[in-house]
Sequence to fold (249 residues):
Amino acid sequence: MKILILGGTREARELAQLASGERGFDIVSSLAGRVRDPQLPAGAVRIGGFGGADGLREWLAANEIDAVVDATHPFAAAMSSHAATAATELGLPLLHVRRPGWVESPGDQWIRVPDLAGAADALAGLGERVFLTIGRQGVAAFAGLHRHWFLIRAIDPPEGAVPTRHQLLLARGPFTESEESGLLAEHRIDVLVTKDSGGALTDAKLAAARAAGRPVVVVDRPALPPGGTVVNSAGDAWTWLRRTPSASG
Ligand code: NAP
Fold:
């Protein structure tokens, strides 16, 4: 059974690790090629876009793929949508691997917003010094906020417009709560902005904000496209792959 794993996440790497070397499974992982020094999964890897849903469909057909696993980040909405379109058109089984979103705990002061523009709007009145931990993409949504100062943390430098008053911190998680608390204190942070990425690699900032009594603007996840099966973890994805009909066919 030949499987394409759309990756760029910890879950995608875990699944590639689980499946690599297993008899009857031929896995290829795909990365967008955005970060300069990506964490590579086990087994075969291809890097770069496919050219939209049509390009993906052609690639799937040319490579005789039997099933598609969309293990992209919860905010990689375009790739998930293309995967759904191409898999549906070819009649291929499709699995989305989505780690659970973060859940508010007692003491948290979260403001949930539907998108990055909503997060920028929500910052009015929440303090001047902002810890922006949304990754490299989407920072431009905050570029018009001239009265705020931003600590922007990302793995690679942001693309496009950035806020006038900012400091860039290039770093890759995981981060500990004490490191995050240290950053909040050192930069006198008033408010955090994060996507609801979920997972344990980057959730220490939420505990640090709770401990410091700081509000967090949390951007909700985009909806998944219709169709396909959804699981929460690499382990469940591996179970699905072993049970999916093409595996025996
Ligand atoms: P996106 O907005 O959904 O995708 C934009 C385009 O990038 C897609 O149309 C596709 O190009 C290409 N692409 C995305 N994921 C790909 C993959 N795994 N393999 C090949 N091409 C891919 O995605 P994104 O938000 O830019 O995320 C890009 C990658 O970074 C994904 O692999 C994702 O898992 C990872 N990531 C994203 C975030 C985030 O916050 N968005 C955070 C951590 C990791 P074509 O149309 O040319 O095929």
